[in-house]
Amino acid sequence: MLSWIIAFISIAVVFVLSITISKLYKELKKNLEEKVKLEHFKEENEKLSGEIESLRQDNEKLKIEKAKFQEQMNSLNEKLDWLEKTKAELRDSFKALASDVTSKNTEDFLKQANDKLKDLLSPLKNNLDTLQKNIVEIENKREKAYGGLEKHLEELTRTNNELQTGITKLNSSLKSSTSRGRWGEYQLKRIVELAGMTAHIDFEEQESNEEGRPDMVIKLPNGGEIPVDAKTPLNAYLEAMEVQDERTRKDKLKKHVKSIKDTIKALSSKAYWEQFKESPDFVIMFIPIEAAVSTAFEIDPGLLELAINKKVLITTPITLIALLKSVAYGWQQFQLAENAKKIAEEGKELYKRLNRFLNNIDDVGKKLTALVKTYNTAVGSLEGRLLPGARRFKEIAEITGKEPSLQPLEVEPRPLNAPELKNEK
Hints:
Helix 3 crosses helix 8 (317-397), helix 4 (235-242) packs antiparallel against helix 5 (246-270) and helix 5 (246-270) packs across helix 6. The chain has a five-stranded mixed sheet. Among the domains are: 176-315, no CATH class; 345-425. The protein starts with a helix and ends with a helix. By secondary structure, the protein is mainly α. The protein contains nine helices and five strands.
C-alpha cells in the first residue's frame, strides 16, 4: 500500500514537474522570441535613426538652399521692379522723342530709310541678276547637252540596228556550208597575220597536191611545213544555240560532237603530212569558234584522244595563235642565226682584205726604205764627185749664187710588226 502511495506521489510529482517545465519552456521560448523581436526592433530603430539623421541633414541643406533662393528671389524682384520702373520711364521718353522726330524729321527719316533699304537690296539684286544669268547659261548648256545626247542616242540606235542586221546576216551566212568555209578561211588568215607572219614568206595559202589542198601551209625555219585546214562543222551547234528546250539542245550538241568526229576522220584520211617534205606527222584542224570546241570537249572528253590518235591537232583562235607565236619565235631565232653566219662570213672576208692591205703597206714601207737608201747614195755621190768639179767651173767662170744644201735622210719608215704579216711570211 505504501508503495502505491509512493508511486502515485511520484507520478504526481513528475506530472507537476512536466507541467512546470512545459510552462517554463513556453515562457523561455516566448522570452527568446521577444528578445529576437527586440533585437530586430533595435536594428530597425538604428536604421530609422540613421535615415532620420540623413533626412535631417538633407532638411538643413534644403533650408540653406531655400534661404539662398529666397535671397535671389528678393534680388530678382528688386531688379524686376527697377526694370519696370525704367521701362515706364523709357516708354515716356521714347514717346516724347518719337513725337518730336515725327513732327520734325519725317521726310529725312523716310529718305534715310529708303537709302538704307536700297543699300541693302542692291547687292541682293545683283546676286539675283547673276543667278538668273547663270540659270540661263545652265539651261542653254543643258539644252545643248540633251541635243548632243539625243544625237548620240540616235547614232547608238542606228549602230545597234546595223549590228543586229550584221549579226542576222552572219547567222544566215553561217548556216550555209560554203559561206562558213570562206569565213573559216578568212579567220585563219587573220589569226596568222595577228601572229606576225607574212604571206609567201612564213606561210602559203591553198597549196595543191595530189590528195587535195589544205587551206594553208605554215613554213618552219628548218625547211619543214605544217598543213592547216580550216573546218566549220557548226550546223548542229548553231541549231543547239537557237533551241530553248534543254533535251533538244543536248541532242543537237551530241550531233555536233559527231560532226566534229566525222571531220577529224575525213581530215586524217587525207594524210597531208605524207605529201609535204619535212612535215610533222600531224595536221592542224582550225575551228574558228572557241565555244563550239569547248562545248564538244565537255560533252565528249575522249574527243581529244581520238584526234591525237588520228594525227589531227584541234585548234581554236587562242591555241592556234599561241602555236603560231612559237613558230614565229623560231623564225626569229633562225634569222638571228642566219644573220650571225652572214656576219661571220663578212668578218672573215674583211680579215682577208685587211691582211692583203697590210702586205701592201709593208711593201710600200720596204720600197720607201730602198728609195731613201738610193737617195742617200745619190747625195753622197753628188757631194763627193760632182760638186767639187762644178765648184771649179764656178771659180773659173766667176759665177755667183748660193748652192743648195742637200742633206742625207736619216728617217726610216716605221716597220710593221703585225702578227698577220709574220703568219703570212
